[in-house]
Amino acid sequence: MTTHNDDVDWDRWPVSDYLAENYREVHASDAAVIAHHSAFYRGLPPGRIARAVEFGAGPNLYPLILASAACRRIDAVEAGASNIAYLEDQICHRLDASWLPFHTLCRRLNPEVPATLAGALAPVNIVHADVRTLPPGAYGLASMHFVAESVTEDFAEFADFCRAFVRTVRPGGHLVAAFMENMPTYRIGPASRWPGCPVNPATVTEVFTPLTRDLDVTHIDVDPTLPDYGDSGMVLLTGVAEAV
Questions:
Q1: 160, 172 in Cβ contact below 8 A?
Q2: What is the full DSSP assignment across 132-182?
Q3: How far is CA 38 from CA 47, 65, 165, 197, in A?
Q4: Whose CA is closest to 231, among 241, 239, 221, 240?
Q5: Torsion 72-51-175-214 (CA) sign
Q6: Which terminal CB of the chain, N or C, has fewer other CB atoms within 10 Å?
Q7: Coiled-coil region(s) at which residues (predicted)?
Q8: Which residues are 77's β-sheet partners?
């Protein structure tokens, strides 16, 4: 049977295992994503974007740090209760020291990132909601990291999530995203199983071409320092939203 997003209890997402496996140090793939996205954000004047969205934020803070260079408010929209609890703990109470090297790299590649980690996260507003319920055209920029391909096994539903992502920004708004390439159904920690939808640069381009202009899709190789989830690297995207 094909697993769809609504078949999964996202409140049980294993935050501690996920962070331990992926974000306790800056892996080469993180550095590549940060370098790619920093070039994108350097093209935007500081504070240019009044309101941005991190579409399915999860517990990964570096996309929020990157966006702080250009965005005055960043809505971190997330459905899973465990991820919301982590975001609230980090942004409202205490910050894990493991995010400091990510901030240092983001700021080195784009000096418009605020000088402290706390300052970079100050624009973040945590929103506990299903991203599919977001109103259309509410944002000037939308960012998405490892979401649409990691919440379903159904390609049609993957494409629906991508369309919902584009719809959140007004026509002419900016888009930046990262996807795991050829991600199968995967495990986090010793036991938990989560849906994956294999995509690649060609399929990402196919989905986004009718929705965008100035689309740029690139690939980075698999990172051998990360757990072997069965993926073959990452697909990175920037573009400008058309009316959807």
A1: no
A2: GGSPTT-EEEEEEES-GGGS-S-HHHHHHHHHHHHHTEEEEEEEEEEEETT
A3: 15, 10, 20, 27
A4: 221
A5: negative
A6: N
A7: none
A8: 55, 127
Mapping DSSP to helix (H, G, I), strand (E, B) and coil, where does residue 214 land?
A: strand
Q: 123 — phi, psi (to 5°)?
A: -75, -5
CB 136 within 8 A of CB 163: no
Interior/surface letters 102-139, b for 16+ CB within 10 angstroms, e for the rest:
bbebbbebbebbbeebeebbebbebbeeebbebeeeeb
Query: Residue 208 is inside which H or E element, if any?
Result: helix 201-208
> pLDDT tens digit string along 95-116?
999 999 999 999 999 999 999 9
Identify which of 158, 147, 25, 140 has the alpha carbon closest to the alpha carbon of residue 78: 147
Q: At what angle do helices 15-22 and 81-92 cross, to 10 degrees?
A: 70
| DSSP character at residue 242 | P
Q: Do 58 and 146 form a contact (C-beta atoms < 8 A)?
A: yes
pLDDT interval class at 185 (50, 70, 90): confident
